[in-house]
Amino acid sequence: MKKRVLIIDDDIDMCALLSRLLMKNGYEVEVSHSGLKGIAKCKETPFDIVLCDYRLGDKEGKDVLVAIKQMNPETIVFIITGYSDIKTAVEVIKLGAYDYITKPLIPDEVLNVLALALREPSPPQHSQAAEARKPEEKNALAPLSSNSNFMVGVSPVTKELYTQIDIVAPTAYSIILYGESGTGKEVIAKTIHDRSSRKDKPFIAMDCGTLSKELAGSELFGHVKGAFTGALADKEGHFELANGGTLFLDEVGNLSYDIQASLLRVIQERKFKRVGGNKEMSLDVRIIVASNENLQDAYRRGKFREDLYHRFNEFSINLPPLRNRKEDIPLFANFFLEKTNQEIGKQIEGFDDDVMSTFLQYSWPGNLREFRNVVRRAVLLTPSGKISASTLPWEIKNAPLITDTEQRISATTPGAAAPQQPVSKERDLKNAAAKAEYETIMSLLKEVNFNKKKAAEILNIDRKTLYNKIRNYEETRELN
C-alpha cells in the first residue's frame, strides 16, 4: 500500500517539484498551499508523513505541527527550513517534529530521510509528560544515547568544564547552565545528576520554552481532577516526578512572572500543592536550570525575578561552543559516524581529509546538534567508502570561500597592500559580473546569518531565484 504524504508549502513551484519526485518514487501525494488548509486536510484523513515549510503565509510551521500532532500523534512530520535556522530546528523537534529538512532540498536526501522514518518505529509523542517519564529517550542536544554512552572530549575548555562538574556535582547546590543552542545543556545536567548522591533517583527534564502560561503551573506542580477545563484526572507534575532526584528546567527565562513567583515559593518552602488541590507535599529536589541568555541581564531588564535568580545562582557553568573545542571536532565526527552507521546499518569508513578540514574551519552556529545532523545527512548520502565534500550542506562547503572573500576584501582596503593576482585567461564581462553577483550574495548571506528568506527580501528577489543564482554559479565554477 502506498504511503500518503501531505506537502504544506506556499511556494507553488516547490510543491510541484516535491510532488513529482515523491509520486515518481511510489508515494501518494496531496498538496496544501497554506497552513490552515493543511490542517483541514489532516482533519479529513490521516497522512503517514507531512512535509511542512516553517515559513507559511498564514501560519508558522510550528503551529501547524502542533495542530497535526494533537489530531494524529502518529503522523511523521518533517519541517522544511533554512539550514542556518538551528534554533528553529531545535524548537520544532522539541514540539514533536520527527526531524527537519534543509533548503535547498536535495532529492536523494529527501527520499532517504522519508524511507528511514518509515522504517523506524514511530518516535514517542513529545508531550511534556512523556519526556518527564522517559528523559533518556528524548532527542538530545548532544552526543548522549544512553546513560553509559556519550563522549566527553579532550580539548582544554572541555577538561575545564568537567573539572567544574566534578567540583559541584557532589553538592546540593542549585546550578545555572549557560550556553548556545545545541551545546548540550541537558547532557551536562544529566552528567551532574549521575555524579551526585542522587544518581539512583529520578532525573526529570522540562523544556520551559514550549509551555504556555496556562499550562506551566500544571506541568510543574501537577493538578487535581476538575481543577480546570480538560483536567479529567489527577496528574503528577515535574516536581513530584523528580522528588528525591534532580529537576532540569531548560530555557527557564521563558517562564511567566506569575509562574516564577510560584516557583520561588516552592523553592523557599520546599513544599507544593497541585493546581486546584489542598494537600501540601514535601519536596526534596535539586534544581538545575539552563538558559541561552544571561539571567542577570534578564532580571535587570525586569524580565526575570531577581530573588529567583539568586536562588538558582548558587553555582553557574558556561558551556563552550563547538567552535572553541577544535580538538574535539574529529572525535565527535567519528562518534557521530559510528552511531549513524549503527542506526541505519551502513559501514561508512570515515571522512576525506578535505571534509575534516572543512569541519575544523566551520563556525558551527548550531553546535553539537548541527554537527550530528550534518554527519547523519552525509552518511545517508554516501553509498560506501568515505564521506566526501559533495555530501556536505551548501553553507558548510562554502564557508572557506566566504573567508577567502573576506580576506580579499580586507587586502584591498585603504592602507593595505593589495596582493598581485594572476590575470585570468578566460576573463570576460559575463563571468566577471556573475562572480561579482555571487560574492555580493555570499557577503549578504553571512551578514544575515544565512537566512535566505531575509537575503532574498533585501535583494528584492524571491527565494527560488536566489537558490538558482547560487546553484548556477556553483555549476559554472565546477565546469571551469
Automatic annotation (TrEMBL):
Sigma-54 factor interaction domain ranges (all copies): 151-380
Chain ranges of the Response regulatory domain: 4-118
Source organism superkingdom: Bacteria
Give the matching Gene3D superfamilies.
1.10.8.60, 3.40.50.2300, Homeodomain-like, P-loop containing nucleotide triphosphate hydrolases
Which residues get modified to 4-aspartylphosphate? D53
Which InterPro entries does the protein's record reference? AAA+_ATPase (IPR003593), AAA_lid_NorR (IPR058031), CheY-like_superfamily (IPR011006), Homeodomain-like_sf (IPR009057), HTH_Fis (IPR002197), P-loop_NTPase (IPR027417), Sig_transdc_resp-reg_receiver (IPR001789), Sigma_54_int (IPR002078)
What the entry lists under Pfam families is as follows:
AAA_lid_14 (PF25601), HTH_8 (PF02954), Response_reg (PF00072), Sigma54_activat (PF00158)
Does this UniProt record's set of keywords contain Kinase? no
Q: What are the UniProt keywords, alphabetically?
A: ATP-binding, Nucleotide-binding, Phosphoprotein, Transcription, Transcription regulation
Q: Which CDD domains match?
A: AAA
Q: Does the keyword Ribosomal protein apply?
A: no
**Name used for this protein in its record:** Sigma-54 dependent transcriptional regulator
